[in-house]
Amino acid sequence: MPIYQLTKRIKFPAVENAEASGLLAYGGDLSTKRLIKAYESGIFPWYSKGEPIQWWSPDPRFVLYPDELKVSVSMRQIIRSGKFKISFDRAFEDVIVACQTIRRKDQDDTWITDEMKDSYCILHNEGIAHSVEVWNGKKLVGGLYGISRGSCFCGESMFSLESNASKAGFIELVNRLNQLKFKMIDCQVYTEHLRKLGARSVKREKFIKQLKLSLEDNLIEGKWNNHSAFKQNQKAS
Fold first, then answer.
1. How are the residues of the chain apportioned to helix, strand and coil, as percentages rounded to the nearest 5?
2. Which region, left, alpha or beta, applies to residue 135 given φ > 0 means left and ψ of -120 to 50 means alpha?
3. 67 with 108, same domain?
4. Is the pTM higher than 0.70?
5. Partners of 119 in the beta sheet?
6. Do 178 and 141 form a contact (C-beta atoms < 8 A)?
7. How many independent structural domains does the chain possess?
8. Are residues 45 and 89 in the same domain?
9. Can you give the CATH number for the domain in which 49 is found?
10. Sheet-wide strand order for 139-149
11. Do 73 and 174 reside in the same domain of the chain?
């Protein structure tokens, strides 16, 4: 399959044209319109500094259905201890900067470029990108961010400065989204961490069909910290 070069036109090739690796196209920009079009088409950007923007749609897709969340006994104990407090859309830029700068094992560089950070901050200001913050006292010790479209949340990245911090934030996010009747959380590609929490691989064709259905829902708009569903009980539960 050829790798398509995007033009200024806000259009993507069909996801079935992606390479076996999931790479579909390159080029274009990270404008709000293009990013929204990408996520609503089952496509996301993923590239490193110095590379052209690359657009991906892997097959299979890694997905967590909120009612399939798995929480271990030990994690339930940590959550009940009240060690962590959770907030939503309170410190988006701090979260994405932490995801950008905190190195993980076997990772030499970040795929969150400054251009990507700036673009997602714009999406956040428009109520499209959202963050989950995990606090230990007044210190931000973990978090994650992603894109919300219809009843689908597309997770992008997470960070943790303390053991289980990001996991606690993710669990609380899934619980809140489940209460709001979100249909799925797009985890994009396989990780063992998310598999243990209940995520599983689904065929891209099935994922795209489910995504289209989720886009028909209009469950919540704007920044999450303005909604009662995300204000109550700001402690991991």
1. 35, 25, 40
2. beta
3. yes
4. yes
5. none
6. no
7. 2
8. no
9. 3.30.70.3550
10. 85-88, 129-136, 139-149, 152-160, 184-188, 61-64, 200-202
11. yes
DSSP string, 42-61: T-EE---TTSPPEEE--SSE
**Among the listed residues 206, 125, 214, 197, the one whose alpha carbon sits nearest the alpha carbon of residue 158:** 197
Cα 69 to Cα 26, 195, 210, distances in angstroms: 34, 10, 18
- Please indicate, yes or no, if residue 237 is contained in any of the structural domains: no
Amino acid at 2: P
Length of the chain: 237
| Best CA proximity match to 172, nearest among 151, 142, 200 | 142
What tens digit of pLDDT does each residue of 110-130 get?
A: 689 999 999 999 999 999 999
Same domain, 175 and 133: yes
Query: What tokens appear for 187 in the block?
Result: 């985890």
Q: Distance between CA 216 and CA 225 in Å, rounded?
A: 23
Report d(CA 58, CA 16) in Å as an integer: 10
pLDDT, one tens digit per residue, over 144-178 is 999 999 999 999 999 999 999 999 999 999 999 99
Domain hosting residue 36, numbered range = 4-58
